[in-house]
Design brief:
The chain is mainly α. It is about 65% helix and about 0% strand. It is built from 20 helices and no strands.
């Protein structure tokens, strides 16, 4: 069964009809603060900050403070929101069933933190909130995997040219983009904002979102090119670091478009442009939250650089991949997706033992992404001829996701070989 992990699929096939469920419940584990996984995922569990949480979850804390005191009027510049269902995955794998709830108001009062209670109160009076505060509420709901609730609260929205309300519409569109059945709504709203917003940065951000979702979710290159044209028509950008940030994101989206067009030279040029704009914003950034925004942009760009370096191949490319992997893991060491990316980088340059180590470290963080980490670790160990380590990795994969097909097949074959 040995094969080169560089040529295998990046995730297992899934048997969705598995009667045991997609993400098994773990029982008998301690409650916080003695629960291992809870330390790494605490912000999504009850909105408590943790210095060993992934950076995208640490964004919850500052937004909570703005929601408690909205008079500051701080704008949201964070790019990433969590995948739908992530909180439930964490709850199941950490064995924290008491924290499972369909809506924030359903969490038992004794488990609510002050930040959680503030969010519940804001949801209760959502219709009476101004567009800015609504934007903060929707961001928090998305981070906590309550996108359906956010969309239900927002209802039908349309941009009207008011910059504050248009930013609220932009946040509504981001929630729609997280749900498969709502993606056409998201793309329609992004295009309306791209062509009508009086805020040029918001218009360009909408083009960035439109390109990304048109490609990643819809595989519609013509729509992505239309968003590119909308973005190139945006003028009168303000002269501050936020402009460099948005331009960096826009060129990163163009790099994704060039990649899917298989215009690899132009892809590398767009990655270079995104990096250039990032370097121009760095000297102007100050303060904790702005630094978080800049670090987030750098972290995403590093993934693009790793992918570009892997495609280049050769000894010089291998050295670059190692350096980029070291930089991204230093920037976001507790992110399961970063650990997967580092594993992918080492696997692509033939360092399968090192790749397996990072895939296993991803797996240790649980969730569906962790299951993929154990799956890829199993592939690496199988390629290296370490059957025992492969059995362990595939078994750990199934402990996180019982529906993974290939790990089951491998373990079945292993049992047959043992007689």
């Amino acid at each position: 069964m040995t094969s080169d992990p560089r040529t295998l699929q990046v995730r297992p096939r899934y048997a969705r009809s598995d009667p045991r469920g997609l993400f098994p419940h773990v029982t008998g584990l301690p409650e916080p603060p003695y629960n291992r996984l809870a330390h790494f995922w605490r912000p999504i569990i009850d909105m408590t900050d943790s210095d060993v949480a992934p950076s995208r979850l640490r964004m919850i804390r500052p937004v909570s403070s703005w929601l408690a005191e909205p008079e500051s009027g701080e704008q949201l510049w964070f790019a990433r929101i969590n995948v739908t269902g992530l909180r439930r995955q964490v709850i199941r794998h950490a064995g924290l069933d008491a924290y499972d709830c369909r809506e924030p108001k359903n969490l038992a009062e004794q488990l609510r933190t002050p930040a959680w209670e503030t969010l519940v109160l804001a949801i209760d009076r959502f219709d009476r909130l101004d567009p800015y505060v609504r934007t903060l509420v929707l961001f928090q709901l998305a981070q906590l995997s309550f996108c359906e609730l956010g969309i239900r609260l927002a209802g039908d929205v349309q941009p009207d040219g008011d910059p504050v309300r248009d930013r609220y519409v932009y946040q509504v569109a981001r929630l729609h983009a997280r749900l498969p059945g709502s993606r056409p709504v998201a793309l329609r709203l992004f295009e309306q904002l791209a062509t009508s917003s009086k805020d040029p940065l918001l218009a360009l951000l909408s083009c960035f979102q439109g390109i990304s979702h048109a490609i990643r979710k819809e595989n519609d290159l013509d729509l992505a090119r239309r968003f590119q044209r909308h973005g190139q028509a945006v003028t009168e950008l303000p002269g501050d670091w936020h402009t460099y940030l948005v331009l960096s994101r826009f060129h990163r989206a163009l790099a994704l478009l060039r990649l899917n067009e298989r215009r690899f030279g132009e892809m590398r040029a767009e990655v270079g442009a995104a990096l250039d704009f990032h370097e121009r914003l760095r000297p102007e950034v100050s303060g904790e939250v702005d630094t978080m925004v800049a670090d987030e942009n750098r972290r995403i760009l590093l993934e693009s650089q790793i992918n570009a370096a892997v495609r280049a191949r050769g000894d010089e490319s291998a050295a670059q991949v190692r350096a980029l992997c070291a930089e991204i893991i230093a920037l976001d060491p507790y992110c399961v997706l970063v650990r997967l990316a580092v594993g992918d980088g080492h696997a692509a340059i033939g360092e399968h033992a090192e790749a397996a180590r990072w895939y296993e470290r991803a797996g240790e963080l649980g969730t569906g992404a962790g299951a993929i980490g154990w799956f890829r670790a199993g592939q690496c160990h199988d390629f290296l001829g370490d059957r025992g380590a492969a059995i362990n990795a595939y078994g750990r994969c199934l402990e996180l996701d019982a529906s993974a097909v290939e790990p089951r097949e491998y373990l079945t074959a292993a049992r047959t070989a043992e007689g």
